[in-house]
Specification:
With 479 residues, this protein is an alpha/beta fold. It has two domains: 264 residues, Aldehyde Dehydrogenase, Chain A, domain 1, CATH 3.40.605.10; 184 residues, Aldehyde Dehydrogenase, Chain A, domain 2, CATH 3.40.309. It has a seven-stranded mixed sheet, sandwiched between helices. Strands 9-8-7-10-11-21 form a six-stranded mixed sheet, sandwiched between helices. The protein is globular, with a radius of gyration of 24 Å. Keywords: Oxidoreductase. Belongs to the aldehyde dehydrogenase family. This is NAD-dependent succinate-semialdehyde dehydrogenase.
Length: 479
């Protein structure tokens, strides 16, 4: 495929290409342009030209177009889902579900656009009024990761478009195809040329060129904390706004009075979804001692039922996307084993027919984990859970907060007062009590501490693409 710039397919100015590899087989499934600073400049200038007209479109028009794009996503969900399945390796039904759920978020953002308003005070004297309104921040650079490439793009694109901004997206090198397909689908659905552009290339090369370019006014990034810090530092050169959704090392607390069946079902489901490749998954679990061994037993039983999907076969979980991501799971499992932890389940790479060509790692449970182990301190981004006993809920809370991350937290406790106190005490942007649902499209999503800056989703996401503007009005009072 080619890059999508100003409503048309375009090769890289250098003519160079990058391979897109299927994680399940290690085979090349397509190539995309290896873009550079020249390609970034072309896309950014196309977005700037398009924004001159797009920001003047009445909100009702932008809403109608966005809803049409959302429906187009649903109409092409199977086609885009198959592309996502090939480039990411996640089982096909989950890939299709990502497309349709992302379309729902576009609709939510469109609805929020209709609720935006300005205000006008009565003024200090006759013939004086003060209007506070909001305008689109400008051209937006959206840099997205591999794990949920469409969902995390829609976090940014849907809010930016409804606010009146135009976007240049840079998808991850591992998963660019689904994003490129979506750009053409949106254009065919009526999104004007240049409003949504997609460039491809290696992160530091083309990403740095986009971040340092003088035209864009905002960077929206989801990815690792180290990269987010570098982006934030670079953005200060031109005072760009930033929204950064970064790493997580999310903790779950299981109290002695918890509904253990519900707790272990939720933790197993959430901790291993997408083979653990998402930022707000359960990464570590603190369990009060009276129920510790029972929680381990139930988690092992439930996680043990999850199956890996071999090439050409069926299963619950796909391969890890590449060797770099796989190495985190292997390293943290080995580190815990060497430091005396019990490996209750998994812990080594899955091999054999249908698995040898991909980086498959089974659901892994590390019991008796201690704070000196990597699994309890660093983001895994893989199907590995660290589990530790604690003597009290307060100890669990202290250990949960002893982290540079603050994206999500989870509490299981029948005592509502105690559970709410723990939720309020967790230093995290989102906290779940007694179950783990998908993050809602209507409420803010983002992290504290080194898990990021700003919020996405709902009206909070739209507002992050708007600037306040104050207008002071004076006029002659006729009577």
């Amino acid at each position: 495929m080619e890059m999508f710039i100003d409503g048309a397919w375009r090769a890289a100015t250098s003519g160079e290409r990058l391979n897109v590899i299927a994680p399940a087989t290690g085979q090349v499934i397509d190539t995309v342009p290896h873009g550079n600073a020249s390609d970034a400049d072309l896309a950014i200038r196309a977005a700037e030209r398009a924004m001159a007209e797009w920001k003047r479109r009445p909100m009702a028009d932008r809403v109608a177009i966005q809803k049409t794009c959302a429906q187009a996503m649903r109409d092409h969900a199977e086609t885009v889902g198959n592309a996502l399945h090939a480039e990411l390796g996640r089982p096909l039904p989950a890939c299709i579900a990502e497309i349709t759920r992302s379309a729902d978020l576009l609709d939510v953002y469109a609805e929020e656009g209709l609720r935006l308003s300005a205000s006008m005070s009565l003024g200090a004297a006759p013939g004086e009024r003060t209007v506070v309104t909001r305008e689109p921040v400008g051209v937006v650079i959206a840099i997205t990761p591999f794990n949920y490439p469409i969902t995390l793009l829609m976090f940014k694109l849907g809010a930016a478009l409804i606010a009146g901004c135009t976007v240049v997206a840079k998808p991850a090198e591992d998963t660019p195809i689904s994003t490129l397909m979506l750009a053409e689908i949106f254009h065919s659905a009526g999104l004007p040329a240049g409003v949504f552009n997609v460039v491809t290339g290696k992160g530091r090369e083309i990403g740095t060129a986009m971040i340092e370019h003088p035209i864009p006014r905002k960077i929206a990034f989801t990815g690792g904390t180290a990269a987010g810090k570098a982006i934030a530092a670079a953005a200060t050169g031109t005072m760009k706004r930033v929204t950064l959704e970064l790493g997580g090392q999310s903790a779950a607390i299981v109290c002695a009075d918890a509904d253990l069946d519900k707790a272990t079902t939720a933790i197993a489901r959430h901790g291993f979804a997408n083979s653990g490749q998402f930022c707000y998954r359960v990464n570590r679990v603190f369990v009060e001692r009276p129920v510790y061994e029972e929680v381990l037993r139930r988690l092992a039983e439930k996680a043990g039922k999850l199956t890996l999907q071999p090439v050409g076969g069926e299963g619950d979980l796909g391969p890890l996307v590449n060797e770099k991501i796989y190495s985190n799971s292997a390293l943290q499992s080995d580190d815990a084993r060497e430091k005396g932890a019990r490996i209750l389940l998994g812990g080594t790479r899955q091999t054999g027919p249908g698995f040898d060509d991909g980086f498959y790692f089974p659901p892994t449970l590390i019991a008796d984990a201690t704070q000196d182990m990597l699994i309890m301190r660093e983001e895994t981004f893989g199907p590995v859970l660290g589990i530790a006993p604690v003597d009290s809920a307060q100890e669990a809370l202290d250990l949960a907060n002893r982290s540079r991350y603050g994206l999500a937290g989870f509490v299981f406790c029948r005592d509502l007062a105690k559970g709410l106190t723990l939720c309020e005490g967790l230093e995290a942007g989102s906290v779940w009590l007694n179950d783990i649902h998908r993050s809602s499209h209507y409420v803010p999503f983002g992290g504290m501490k080194e898990s990021g800056l700003g919020r996405e989703k709902g009206r909070y996401g739209v507002e992050s693409y708007l600037e306040y503007k104050t207008m002071y009005l004076s006029y002659e009072v006729p009577i």
